[in-house]
Every structure is written in structure tokens, then in C-alpha cells.
Amino acid sequence: MKFTPEKYHIPDEPMKSFIDVDEIWNYLNAIQPTKERVEAIIAKSLDKQRLTLEETAALINTKDIELVEKIKEGARTLKERVYGNRIVLFAPLYIGNYCMNSCQYCGFRSSNKEAVRITLSDDAIVKEVEALEDDGQKRLILVYGEHRNYSPEFIARTTRLVYSVKHDKGEIRRVNINAAPLEIEGFRTVAEAGIGTYQIFQETYHPDAYKKYHLSGKKADYSWRLTALDRAQEAGIDDVGIGALLGLYDWRFELMALVRHTNHLEACYNVGPHTISFPRIQDASELNISDEYFVSDGDFIKLIAILRLAVPYTGLILTARESEALRQEAIRYGISQIDGGTNLELGGYQEEKVVEQDLNKEQFQVNDNRPLSEIVEKLLEDGYLPSFCTACYRRGRTGEHFMEFSVPGFIKRYCTPNAMLTLAEYLCDYAQPEVAVKGWEVIEKNMSQVDERFVEELKSRLQRIREGERDIYF
Ligand code: SAM
Ligand code: SF4
Predict the structure, then answer these.
(1) Whether the CB of 99 sits within 6 Å of ligand 2
(2) How many domains does the chain have?
(3) Could you give the CA distance from residue 354 to residue 345 in angstroms, rounded to a whole number?
(4) For residue 181, which ligand has an atom nearest its CA?
(5) Are the beta carbons of 50 and 284 closer than 8 angstroms?
(6) What is the Cα–Cα distance from 133 to 127, expressed in whole angstroms?
(7) Distance from residue 99's CA to the centre of ligand 2 (Å)
(8) Residue span of the structural domain in which 307 resides
(9) pLDDT averaged over the chain?
(10) I need a labelling partner for 232 at 20 to 30 A (CA). Which of 197, 200, 456, 473 fits?
């Protein structure tokens, strides 16, 4: 798939800043769309074409309740068309919370003397991963503070360690990373360990607001962070994740900037971000943020629906920062990945906890505390297909290749069957009998969503899983 780059005040060049604050505000201040215009934009998106900044601004500025409902309805339809019923599941694993930065919103910041600092030992990492595998997890995101101890070599080594842990039938098949920006060479080192996505959130794309929250440490350099994923791309990491931390600045600006960042990566590397995250700030130890830019639930859902329409092929992640009720609602409007069974305490997944749970030991508060088993059960009850699939990245369908495959037919041919195969493994190995019954029913119901040429082969593979074979995928 080729992209036609849009024309902006700041032209897109690799590893150069691309955010023009006035340009974004000009779009937001100028555009008051008519009903017909909003409907035409929704129709364009349903035709699976990515929206321009101007079109995104038009949806953001839509206030009429009925039209906002149309935007949400459009997002729902698009989500079903592009992603089917699948919801991909993962868990975060905090490796170390030493940090040299002082982000005003984060419990791990260096100035927070109350924070209990820990870097997991190799032994503790193995125990954590075993506990996660025992729950049925297959995809992890490893999280690190920004500290000289967490060098590219350290990140690569801990990634390999995680991949090496095989407990009973468990194994981790995809390790994503959320850590500090690196030099190109550093990204190369990490890439060689076989990571999936490298995720870095800009936090706020507004340079002045950014300055206010990032007073010291390397993270104070806005441009170094903004161009980080360009360096990752240069190093050969073509699955990258972007994000904004909502509550630091106006959400409308951040949403436009996320789309602008997507355009930038497409223009320079012919591949947009693999995922977009938009966490809302949660309570944290010594939190030091005013509520001036607090994002209400209503605006948050509207933002998710607009983002779904603006970037139809990009995965949208919603973490356990949000409550169960909000996550259930947001899933309908375009979320494609959620975490389950999340524990942010360092060492918190093991049965014998390294430390007692309290906010001084976690980065921020989690609001959906359900174990993975409960999340899977609820998804099944709501008719979703919980997926632990890691096939694309292991088959080399990443980056540009992944975009090529994200075309009509791909979901029916690969994603839905692979979701079923990984769910089947989960049902055989980890689910309670009553959940397994619900799971097999959902698999059966979703057979009509599979390309009919592959149904027989899929059924035979599902049978092989029932008989004990593992890790078969299309
Ligand atoms: N230290 C690295 C960094 O800052 O990019 C990576 C890990 S950091 C622990 C992961 C993300 O957590 C940050 O990028 C930020 O968006 C988010 N975060 C920090 N404080 C938060 C809070 N109070 N509520 C919600 N999310 C928060
Ligand atoms: Fe450190 Fe990351 Fe927290 Fe900032 S957000 S204080 S860099 S762990």
C-alpha cells in the first residue's frame, strides 16, 4: 500500500521535527463542518481511507449530539469491518523503575523519594514470566524507567531471558518494549533480541506544555523524543507504537498530533505506527498535575471513535488504567488491544510478592483489576474473540508488509483463524470448564467469519490443538 503524503508547513523528513503548533490550531479553529460534510468524512473512512488532518479536525469540532452518535456508529462499523470480533490480549511486565527523569505525572520520577526502587533480578524475571505463562499470557510488554542501568544491552538481554522461559505448556511469543528513546545503534541492539513493537509515548505533543512537565533529565528534550521512532525505523524496527498521555494539554490538539505523527511515519517510512495509545492520567504517588485538561468519559469515547475513523488500519490500545465499564464501552468503538490481569507492582505477578502493594510501589493506579480469566470470560459473553495471536510478526508480516496485508480478505484468511487457534490453546490449557464451553461456542459462531476456502483446514487444526499440538498458525 502506498501513501500520498499531505502537504504541511513543515515538510516530512526523516528524524526531523514535524509538529507545527499553529498549523494544528489553525485547522481546529477554522473548521465548523456541516452535517453533509461529517457524513461524507465518515463514508470516506468506511471506505477504509485514512483521514486528513482537516477531516480529523472536522470530526473533532462536531458538537451536535446526533452527529457525534453517527461518528460513534461509523467507528463501530469500521471496527467490525477491519478487525472483526477479535480483541488481542497482553500484559505489562515492569522490569525496573529506577529513573533519572522527573516527569511531573509519574510515580517513578527521580524527585519522588517515596517510590520504592527495584530492578528485577534474572531470577525474579523468570518467576514473573512463569506466573504470567501460568495465567495463559502469550504477549508481554516490558516496561523500564529511563536510567543508565537500562541500556540497550540490558533491554536486549532481559527480552531474550523472557523468551527463554517455558513453563509447562506456556511460552511468551511476542515481547514488546516500552522504554526510553535510544540512538539508532541502541535500537539495533534491541531489535536483534527479536522484539515486537517498540512503544514510546510523546506524552504531550505541545512543546511548551511538554517543557512544563519534563523539567530535568534526558526526557526534557522534546525533539529527541519526538524523533525517537524515526530512529527505531532507521534501525529496522518497523513495528512502532506512538501515544499521548491525556490530561497534560488539550485532547483535541493531542488527537490531531497523533494523526500528524502517523502521517509523518507514513511519509518517511511508508508505514504508519503499529499501535496508538492514549492513556488518561491516573492517580500516582506524589501526583503533581492540575485538572485543567482533564478528559471526561464522553470526550474520551469521542476521541477513540474519531481515531478509529482517522487511522482505520492502526491498532488502538486501551489499558487497565481505565475501569471495566469504560473499557467495555470503548471496545465497541475501535479498541483492538487490551491488557488483562495487569499488575504494575514490580514482582507483583509472583505468588510470593516481592513487596506489599501500595501506590509508592506502582507507577500509577490501575482501575481494572480483573484477572485475565475474568476478562476472557466477559469478552466471550459479549461475543468477542479473545486473541493471543502473534502470527504476523513471526511470519515477517510486519511494518510495510503488515500494511500490505491489512486489506480486505486478510482478516478472514489470517486474523480470525489465528485468534481461534490461540483461543483454543487457552481454552484447553488454562480455562475453567464453564469458560471453555463458552469459548468453543464463540469459536463455532465465528466460523462464518472465516474465508470458506480455509474452514476445513482451520477445523482440522483446531482438532490438532484439542489433541495436544501447540503453536500452529496461518
Ligand atoms: N520510562 C519510559 C518512558 O517514560 O517512556 C517508559 C515507561 S513509562 C513507565 C510508560 C508510560 O506511562 C509513560 O510514557 C506515560 O505515558 C505513562 N504514565 C506515566 N505516569 C502516568 C500516570 N500517572 N497515569 C497514567 N499513565 C502514566
Ligand atoms: Fe521515568 Fe518514564 Fe516515569 Fe518519566 S514516565 S518518570 S521517564 S518512568
Answers:
(1) yes
(2) 2
(3) 9
(4) 1
(5) no
(6) 10
(7) 6
(8) 81-370
(9) 92
(10) 473
